[in-house]
């Protein structure tokens, strides 16, 4: 999954059309000034190194006379990439739940809770998802 920036191509098209941003020819510098950010930030967005905040995307789209979704092209993940993303998420979620469960059990044992009370607390917290049944 990718977002491919189209900022530079829109700036070039607007320059060719004689468009102005705050009275200046469209460029990363004039766009940066109009947005109140540094030119380096616009350059980073245009290279795909970062993505602006949603409100900045809308402001930039207004300044360039385009819809916000025209600033970036979304390339959907392939089926294999999507499967890998889901597997990575599931693995991280399992590790997180097991770590949180382990820490909570340790904490409750130190407080003198019985095993039954510990299990009930763990169940209430939703940390039993990966318990063997």
Automatic annotation (TrEMBL):
Every HTH cro/C1-type domain range: 27-71
InterPro entries noted in UniProt: Cro/C1-type_HTH (IPR001387), Lambda_DNA-bd_dom_sf (IPR010982)
SMART domains given in the database record: HTH_XRE
Coiled-coil stretches: none
UniProt GO molecular function: DNA binding
Domain of life: Bacteria
Protein name: Helix-turn-helix transcriptional regulator
The organism of origin for this protein: Thermoactinomyces daqus
Lineage, broadest ranks: Bacteria, Bacillati, Bacillota, Bacilli, Bacillales
């Amino acid at each position: 999954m990718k977002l491919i920036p189209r900022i530079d191509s829109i700036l070039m098209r607007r320059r060719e059309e004689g468009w102005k941003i705050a009275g200046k020819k469209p460029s990363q510098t004039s766009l940066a000034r109009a947005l109140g950010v540094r030119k380096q930030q616009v350059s980073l967005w245009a290279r795909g190194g970062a993505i602006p905040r949603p409100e900045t995307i809308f402001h930039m789209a207004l300044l360039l006379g385009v819809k916000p979704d025209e600033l970036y092209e979304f390339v959907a993940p392939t089926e294999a990439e999507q499967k890998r993303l889901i597997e990575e998420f599931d693995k991280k979620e399992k590790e997180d739940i097991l770590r949180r469960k382990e820490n909570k059990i340790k904490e409750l044992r130190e407080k003198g809770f019985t095993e039954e009370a510990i299990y009930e607390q763990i169940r209430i917290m939703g940390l039993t998802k990966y318990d063997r049944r």
